Amino acid sequence: MSKQMNRAMRQYQQVGLEGLVADANPHTLIRLLMQGGLDNITRAKGALARGDMGAKAQFIVDSIRIIDGLRVYLDHEQGGDLAHNLETLYDYMSRRLIEANTHNDARLLDEVSALLAEIKTGWEAIAPESNGRVPA
After folding, report:
1. How many whole angstroms separate alpha carbon 52 and alpha carbon 38?
2. H or E, element range at 99
3. What whole-number distance in Å separates Cα of residue 83 and Cα of residue 77?
4. Distance of alpha carbon 124 from the chain centroid
5. Please, which pLDDT band fits residue 130 given cuts at 50, 70 and 90?
6. d(Cα 29, Cα 22) in Å, to the nearest integer?
7. Rounded to an integer, what distance in angstroms lies between the CA atom of residue 83 and that of residue 25?
């Protein structure tokens, strides 16, 4: 895919995401962040397989930024040990992504993706109900 096509696709995705974010509740925002992290890890793995090290690095950096964004949502007062454990796990995931980038290691990308997918599944299981509907 050409650089112009990649840029156009990112702009399209950003506009679509901005629309979702504008209407999202906090629970949905966190779910969207998690999905964005997973998507970027998948893209990083694809870029690695193609030998596109610049794109791989950018997707990994984007994933780390998303994980850092998830940290912002942690409420240590109400979350107690769970919030602390998630903070520790997010830190671990960021360090593993840095290692994946440094060593071009797809296995580390898979490891972080599996961890984030598990957290996302748990998060989706506790979706708040709104007027009898589960938010998107």
Report:
1. 19
2. helix 76-103
3. 8
4. 14
5. very low
6. 9
7. 20
